[in-house]
Amino acid sequence: MFLAGFVAYALAPVMPSISAERHLFGWDAEPLTGTIRADRPGFSTNPQTVPRGRLQIEGGYQFSEDQGVDRHTLPLLLIRAGLTKKLELRASWDGSSWTDENGRFEPEASDMGLGLKAHLVEQSRLLPAIGLLGSLSLPTGNGGSTSNGVDPTGGLLWDYELAAGPSLFGTLLMSSVTDDDRRFFEAANAVGVSLPMNDRFGVFLEYSGFYRTGGVGAAHNLDGGFTYLPTDNLQLDIHGGVGINGRADDCLLGTGLAFRF
């Protein structure tokens, strides 16, 4: 129901093409204006969507450590395809993780995800830009990296650019997740600030929290990093973070890129 309503809203205002260039699915592609807006690094997802007829590919590598156990993950792949001016199709796959425990690497494949993102509202006065996210996690992984269930997620996304240049942003997600053949409700939220240092460099700082029913307890994290735009259609990033409490990973480091065409 969530995804059906999502699609109905976003397809209603389909506009005529503003460019004769043929691209995705043979559709007329909107021109690439402004600079790329990536959903990485960090936990939050911005409300903007990829232009109609365009593809955006994001990925990277992440190292995390928790209680002496190291984990390496790549390619953290996210493929975003612009369907309309306000709607994008999304496919995600964290990829493979290698856990270094007692000198042994144990590889695992993660679950894949499919979803949609709609850009609902542009920023206006005190109202931030707002988007909605809907996705399904599919049990394609193995080992401890799969839930062995189909897990839906719905999310509210927002972003507010201040007159002085910084932007405030946040994400609120609600999920039904499977763990040990039991189903739990999980909520996650994030809030942060990004600051452009100049036209090409930026820095961000973000808090994120994860809350699950069943007496598991909450996990709190703090992360931040830098972004660099060599061109308007390419972003490079480096980021790091620490767990604020015992439920979160002790630390993480990562790097990656995003490009659109």
Can you walk through the features of this model?
The protein is mostly beta strands and 261 residues long. It has a single domain, classed as Porin (Beta Barrel), CATH 2.40.160. 4% of the residues lie in helices and 58% in strands. It is built from 1 helix and 13 strands, in the order αβββββββββββββ. It has a 12-stranded antiparallel barrel.
Q: What topology does this entry show?
A:
Elements: H1 2-11, E1 55-66, E2 69-82, E3 87-101, E4 104-109, E5 112-121, E6 129-138, E7 151-161, E8 167-179, E9 182-196, E10 201-212, E11 219-231, E12 234-243, E13 251-260
Antiparallel strand pairs: 1-2, 1-13, 2-3, 3-4, 3-5, 5-6, 6-7, 7-8, 8-9, 9-10, 10-11, 11-12, 12-13
Give a brief rundown of this model:
The chain has about 260 residues and is mostly beta strands.
Annotation keywords:
mainly beta, 13 strands, globular, disordered N terminus, single chain, Porin, 261 residues, twelve-stranded antiparallel β-barrel
Number of strands: 13
Instruction: Kindly state the percentage of residues in helix.
Output: under 10%
Strand order of the largest sheet: 1-2-3-5-6-7-8-9-10-11-12-13
Number of helices: 1
